[in-house]
Amino acid sequence: MVYAVVRAGGRQEKVQVGTIVTMNRIAATSGTIELPALLLVDGEKVTTDSKALAKVKVIAEVLDQTRGPKIIIQKYKNKTGYKKRQGHRQDLTRVQVTEIK
Q1: Which one of the record's GO molecular function terms can you name (predicted)?
Q2: Collapsing DSSP states into helix, strand and coil, what is residue 47?
Q3: Distance CA 24, CA 72 (A)
Q4: pTM
Q5: CA-CA distance, 50 to 35, in Å (whole number)?
Q6: Would you say 12 and 5 are in contact if contact means Cβ atoms under 8 Å apart?
Q7: What pLDDT, on a 0 to 100 scale, did the predictor assign at position 17?
Q8: Do 60 and 31 contact (CB within 8 A), yes or no?
Q9: Residue partners of 68: CB distance under 8 A and separation at least 6
């Protein structure tokens, strides 16, 4: 069982071949991207050395650009009549890991 921990959109994700990852929006709209590996597990062998991980390539294919669910930000101050409501939807990118080598 081969898997890697990669840096994806400001977070760390555990991925295998075929894993679909949703991460913060990246500039690539289509094609393939390379994700930097932070840890590699190949059977019983665990690799964390930065020089060895520089040779590891985690290739992912961009599936689509989406937006996350709407979240509501509400602010309220008692006795002053101050109320503020704001919404936010995060821009996201879905990628599928095609190979780890």
Answers
A1: structural constituent of ribosome
A2: strand
A3: 19
A4: 0.85
A5: 14
A6: yes
A7: 97
A8: no
A9: 89, 90, 91, 92
Spell out the per-residue pLDDT of the chain, length 101, in tens: 899 999 998 899 999 999 999 999 998 888 999 999 999 999 899 999 999 999 999 999 999 999 999 999 999 999 999 999 999 999 999 999 999 99
Angstrom CA distances, 27 to 14, 20, 43, 47, 91, stand at 22, 18, 34, 29, 11
Assigned token pair, 39: 């840890």
Task: Identify which of 19, 93, 101, 23 has the alpha carbon closest to the alpha carbon of residue 62.
Answer: 93
Tell which residue, 41, 37, 39, 18, has the closest CA to residue 95: 18
Q: Tokens representing 51?
A: 């020089």
Calculated CA dihedral for residues 35, 41, 43, 49, nearest 10 degrees: 110
Residue with tokens 């294919």: 61
